[in-house]
UniProtKB/TrEMBL annotation:
Family assignment from sequence similarity: Belongs to the class-III pyridoxal-phosphate-dependent aminotransferase family.
InterPro entries per record: Aminotrans_3, PyrdxlP-dep_Trfase, PyrdxlP-dep_Trfase_major, PyrdxlP-dep_Trfase_small
Keywords: Aminotransferase, Pyridoxal phosphate, Transferase
Lineage, top ranks: Bacteria, Bacillati, Bacillota, Bacilli, Bacillales
GO cellular component terms, semicolon-separated: cytosol
CDD domains cross-referenced by the UniProt entry: OAT_like
Keyword Transferase: yes
MF (Gene Ontology): pyridoxal phosphate binding; transaminase activity
Domain of life assignment: Bacteria
Database matches in PANTHER family: AMINOTRANSFERASE, AMINOTRANSFERASE CLASS-III
Protein's name according to its UniProt entry: Aminotransferase class III-fold pyridoxal phosphate-dependent enzyme
KW Transferase (keyword) present: yes
Pfam families: Aminotran_3
Length: 426
């Protein structure tokens, strides 16, 4: 307990920390105080390649022995290889990367790059989003985690992201819904001064706030608005990137290409803390003759670069993107079976191995977190560990999970929900 007392634990009252320890981890499993559990949130929806992958560990070890660090004014083959490999899994309009140490820091630098490139200041982002905890990324964030950054910085404007489940019945079709939200956004842009806006940031699928998949035509509409008003479109793929949704990046589910992509998490599965900003050829070219006013002591850290190169090899070798797409379909079917069985489930949202179960407010208790915490504890007792928020349970296992393991884990979920709702254990 000595350590527990000297270490801060994020996003909680420190007295609420339960003191649980991960004593071991391997593949899709974690051991919580010795108890083996499916890791159904890949920790923080980041350990996409699973725990303790020996190839990635070896690559990091070898790089560490060879050369762990160099000053950012120099280059080194592993840096170039990592940059090329990241660009290699993206459409070829993207030409340069800027490495960072986290997702928040990727968004911080994307804000700066967008402002430097456009010469404009205002930044739009959506309510219900999460973009990070640092001041800039916190100002982008639309959910309540932004409040720690209040009063907000001038020039950060929030718009509403369409949420199909919560606006049920209000729109006859996806198209009608998209048009409604796009028209509102267009008005907001004009009111904010259409020549003042550098970028619109969004998560192509809102992640941490519950896998909110936009209606058809919405992201295409955002792309058109950005083209019309010469605003950069920035997709935050920190959580949705790296196969999580069944494509390398979630934006690829639609006919759009953002100008800037930020990502982190699955890039190295957090074997090393690392992130990246990827920019299109126009932005890349601009900085040929303009000073890039960004930097960090740990820029393009060689261990992060080695982890990135090795991780991308693992994604390809194990066909993890295809596995996520394929097993995501199974996950969707199985979760929808549960929805038809338990009337407390309001909505299932699933894309690849990225799913959310949203419980009805009146059953789980008015969007408070108490009951979801209770459900999470019951699940953990049965060997199914995951994360939840408000009345939403996340399901996002490592992409290396196989069909049998997925079904076995979902059986645990089903039996816990059955005990809870059919047999009335609560
Ligand atoms: N953006 C999104 C979409 C995220 O989900 C997160 C973290 O969960 C971040 C940014 C921040 O990343 P980090 O926690 O690595 O700073």
């Amino acid at each position: 307990m000595e350590n527990a007392n000297s270490l801060f634990h994020p996003w909680m009252k420190q007295n609420d920390f339960q003191g649980k320890k991960i004593t071991d981890a391997d593949g899709i499993y974690i051991w919580i105080d010795g108890k083996k559990c499916f890791d159904m949130a890949s920790q923080s929806i980041n350990v996409n390649i699973g725990h303790r992958n020996s190839e990635v560990i070896r690559a990091i070890q070898e790089q560490c022995e060879k050369l762990p660090y160099i000053y950012s004014g120099f280059s080194n083959p592993i840096m170039d290889e990592a940059a090329r490999d990241v660009l290699g899994v993206l459409p070829n309009i993207y030409k340069k990367v800027y490495f960072t140490n986290s997702g928040s820091e990727a968004n911080e630098n994307a804000i700066k790059l967008a402002r430097m490139y456009t010469g404009k200041q205002k930044i739009f982002s959506s309510y219900n989003s999460y973009h990070g905890s640092t001041i800039g990324a916190g100002n982008l964030t639309g959910d309540q985690r932004r409040l720690a950054c209040e009063p907000g910085q001038v020039g950060f404007i929030k718009f509403n992201f369409p949420d199909k489940y919560h606006s049920k019945g209000q729109f006859r079709s996806d198209k009608e819904m998209s048009n409604f939200y796009l028209d509102l956004l267009r008005e907001q842009i004009i009111d904010e001064g259409q020549n003042n806006i550098a970028a619109i940031f969004l998560e192509p699928i809102i992640g941490g706030n519950g896998v909110i998949i936009p209606p058809d035509n919405y992201l295409e509409g955002i792309r058109e608005i950005c083209n019309e008003f010469k605003i950069l479109m920035v997709c935050d793929e920190v959580m949705t990137g790296w196969g999580r949704t069944g494509k390398w990046f979630a934006f690829e589910h639609w006919d759009i290409k953002p100008d800037i992509i930020t990502t982190s998490k699955g890039m190295t599965s957090s074997y090393v803390a690392f992130g990246v900003v990827v920019v299109n050829e126009h932005i890349a070219k601009y900085f040929d003759n303009h000073v890039l006013m960004c930097g960090s002591t740990n820029y393009a850290h060689l261990l992060g670069c080695a982890a990135t190169v090795a991780s991308i090899k693992v994604y390809k070798k194990l066909n993890l993107i295809e596995n996520s797409e394929l097993l995501g379909k199974l996950l969707n079917v199985e979760l929808n079976k549960m929805k038809s069985k338990y009337h407390s489930i309001g909505d299932i949202r699933c894309k690849g191995l990225f799913a959310a179960i949203e419980f009805k407010d009146n059953v789980m208790g008015k969007r408070d977190s108490v009951n979801i915490a209770y459900l999470i504890n019951l699940l953990e007792e049965k060997g199914f560990w995951t994360l939840g928020r408000r009345n939403i349970l996340m399901i996002a296992p490592p992409l290396i999970i196989n069909r049998e393991q997925l079904l076995e884990s979902l059986n645990i979920l089903d039996s816990v929900l059955e005990d809870l709702y059919m047999k009335g254990s609560k």
